[in-house]
Design a protein that fits this description.
alpha/beta, Rossmann fold, Jelly Rolls, 10-stranded mixed sheet, 5 helices
């Protein structure tokens, strides 16, 4: 299993800066998607790569990063991909086994929904991908996953693209055992962790898992 991890700084909002900063490890590949460089700087990190059309950064900031050793890959403004999608493409080309996307939510609703849709890329199926703003952690589950947190944290499970079958959970206040969740129903919303970890598995379909840390 490839243990190399990339952290992508998106250009969204951060709910808890300290928690987000603590998620970054010393050997991570740090990638800023255009304006995500501002997020990286506020968190106290300098990205190894800056990628995008760079319309969200002043030229002096781009120059500062270049002088500091950041590699810059500039794309035209008129392009078919968002800056985050370009950052994901680069991370995959580096052969990473895990991707953490910070500040992916907030701001424009179309951008947020577009970011969420990227999780369903087929070439990400073998890669562990998480989106996180320091309070909410979001993952797409195709088979099984373990969530680490604290008792009282909220866990919501949302089916994607149709029914999710054979859903079984452990470590939640309201457990599911080989059950189905439907996209037109809200049964999977607002469960709670009973300890420091919980597990989710399913037989068919896919689930968006939203882990909301309490007190954040």
């Amino acid at each position: 299993m490839n243990t190399k991890r990339a952290v992508i700084f998106a250009n969204g909002k951060m709910a808890d800066w300290k928690t987000a900063s603590d998620l970054i490890q010393t050997d991570d590949l740090l990638i800023a998607a255009d304006g995500g460089a501002k997020v990286a700087r506020k968190l106290g990190f300098t990205p190894q790569l800056l990628i995008g059309d760079l319309d969200s950064l002043p030229a002096r900031e781009v120059k500062r990063l270049e002088v500091g050793g950041t590699r810059v890959i500039r794309h035209p403004v008129e392009k078919d991909e968002t800056d985050l999608e370009l950052a994901l493409d680069f991370a995959l080309s580096e052969g990473v086994g895990e991707i953490l996307i910070l500040a992916p939510f907030g701001g424009r609703l179309d951008q947020t929904l577009g970011n969420l849709s990227l999780l369903n890329r087929k070439d990400l199926r073998g890669v562990q991908v998480r989106m996180d703003d320091g309070r909410d952690e979001l993952t797409l589950i195709h088979s099984n996953a373990t969530i680490h947190g604290a008792a009282g944290d909220i866990i919501s499970l949302l089916p994607v693209g149709g029914e999710a079958g054979g859903v079984t959970t452990r470590g939640l206040q309201y457990p599911l055992t080989d059950e189905s969740l439907y996209p037109q129903k809200t049964r999977g919303i607002s469960n709670r962790m009973t300890g420091q970890s919980a597990s989710v598995s399913l037989g068919t379909g896919a689930l968006i898992c939203i882990h909301t840390r309490q007190g954040k």
